[in-house]
Amino acid sequence: EMNAVARQLGDDGVDLGQGFPNYDPPDFVVQALRDELEGISGGGPQVRHQYTRTAGHVPLVEQLAERYSKHLGRTIDPMREVAITVGATGALYLTMQAALAAGAERAKAAGEEAPDEIVALEREAFQK
Hints:
Blueprint: H1 2-9, H2 27-38, H3 58-72, H4 78-81, H5 88-109, H6 116-127
Helix pairs in contact: 5-6
């Protein structure tokens, strides 16, 4: 359904639906997967078949925090300030949740009520 809407909108629309790549992964990725599955990379059968933490694999968020700490000129906390998402829709959702929560917290700290728009969006998000 969303693909059809995006096609109707043409250049004015952005389809954030599920992607279906029309190309194979690079050879080095395929080889790394083979090495992992065959146990070559660690000296034996690999059994790392668990989900990572919701906000991303710890070594990855640590590397990103280190890189962006240098880029931004301040220390980035990898466990609190870096989140990995599984696509644009998830990223937009997390961004909105963080912004809405921050806006509501600022309003509370100032002794004010949160703007109606923030309250309405928060209610809608959590009722689903």
